[in-house]
Design brief:
By secondary structure, this protein is of the alpha+beta class. The protein has helices spanning 7-15, 60-72, 77-84, 121-126, 147-159, 165-179, 186-209, 215-247, 249-264, 271-277, and strands at residues 23-25, 28-32, 37-40, 48-50, 93-95, 102-108, 114-120, 130-131, 137-138, 145-146, 278-283, 289-293, 299-302, 320-322, 325-326. The chain has a 6-stranded mixed β-sheet with strand order 5-11-12-13-14-15. A 3-stranded antiparallel β-sheet has the order 6-7-10. A two-stranded antiparallel sheet has the order 1-4. Helix 7 (186-209) packs antiparallel against helix 8 (215-247). The chain is flat. The chain starts with 6 loop residues before the first helix and ends with a strand. 14% of the residues are buried.
């Protein structure tokens, strides 16, 4: 039946490598052999790809054309950006070995607690570098990057930015102060307008009851007055809420300034802020990391002998190259 042919089913058919004679093993794995519960393999284990494993139903050229067409019709960068906004680093961590983007994976520690790590998509899909059955070089050796390590590096970059933090905070605070300032007399003018409209509505009703106007004339005029009254009442309610905020305005501004100072000093993490300033992060094969910010024509380089998959102590000294010299 046609109702069974959903877009997901069609995509599975188009992407099924078995039709061109290949076989991919270990798409699922069993993390706990006591429960025998299977999970999708999202890079936890290496996939086994067997090309020309069996007699194909379609030729490889047609299959590859279908994959190319699927790639052409894939969501554009803007659509992907909307999806990737869930994470600050989505689509922005790049592999310095093969050029693929990094993807997020949940990992387990020995104490059963979980953490998020980023890994090269090619490595997550095909494991360590090797040659498949058809003689193709697949896999990637680029080390993974712990999510907390990536955040720590970004904080270090922001901490060492040569900017006038007090000036930035002062400007932002002034913008907020101006935006939240109540215009003098606006509430009184709205209240007077509501009273005038209410009186008009009362007189209109009186004329209707005295049969001075017809039902056809009364109804649209009454509805128009009601809409105008509702609009002014909404504006008045917004002003009343704003007036309530004014009572604690100075404390709110001080709290906002403290939050902004924490973010700009690199002491506090805020996804939206770092997502806006980060252009990309390149992870090199030796574990080194290069960070590029938007609108800045230089790179912060972090080098480290050990892989970032381990926890990064906050006291560790990491050389940073910037236009201001060694930080």
């Amino acid at each position: 039946y046609m109702k069974d042919w959903s877009n997901v089913v069609i995509l599975r058919v188009l992407r099924n490598e078995k039709y061109c004679g290949d076989l991919i093993q270990k798409k699922t794995f069993t993390p706990d052999y006591l429960t025998h519960e299977k999970k999708l393999n999202r890079g936890e284990e290496e996939l086994v790809i067997l090309r020309d494993h069996h007699e194909p139903i379609i030729d490889r050229e047609l299959f590859e054309k279908a994959q190319a067409e699927l790639a052409r019709r894939a969501p554009n960068d803007e659509q992907k950006a909307k999806h990737s906004n869930r994470y600050c680093f989505s689509g922005k961590i790049k592999c310095g070995v093969c050029g693929h983007s990094f993807v997020a994976r949940s990992k387990k520690r020995q104490d059963d607690s979980t953490y998020k790590a980023w890994r090269c998509y090619e490595g997550a899909r095909n494991g360590a570098p090797h040659t498949d059955k058809a003689g193709n070089a697949v896999g990637c050796s680029c080390p993974s990057l712990n999510d907390e390590d990536a955040k720590q590096l970004m904080k270090m970059v922001v901490k060492n930015l040569q900017i006038d933090r007090d000036g930035v905070i002062g400007n932002l605070t002034q913008i907020i102060k101006t935006a939240t300032q109540e215009p003098d007399g606006k509430a009184e003018r709205l209240e007077a307008k509501i009273s005038q409209l209410t009186e008009k509505k009362r007189r209109l009703l009186s004329m209707y009851l005295d049969r001075e106007i017809s039902t056809e004339d009364f109804k649209p005029m009454s509805e128009k007055l009601e809409r105008e009254i509702a609009t002014h009442q909404s504006g008045l309610a917004a002003l009343e809420k704003q007036a309530e905020l004014q009572k604690n305005r100075e404390k709110l501004l001080a709290d906002m300034a403290a939050v902004m100072r924490g973010i700009l000093s690199g002491d506090q993490w805020e996804d939206a802020f770092y997502s806006q300033i980060l252009e990309n992060i390149f992870v090199n094969g030796d574990g080194g990391v290069n960070v590029n910010l938007r609108l800045l024509p230089y790179t912060w380089g972090f080098s480290r002998q050990e892989h970032f998959g381990a926890s990064l102590p906050t006291s560790v000294s990491i050389p940073v190259t910037s236009p201001y010299g060694q930080l």
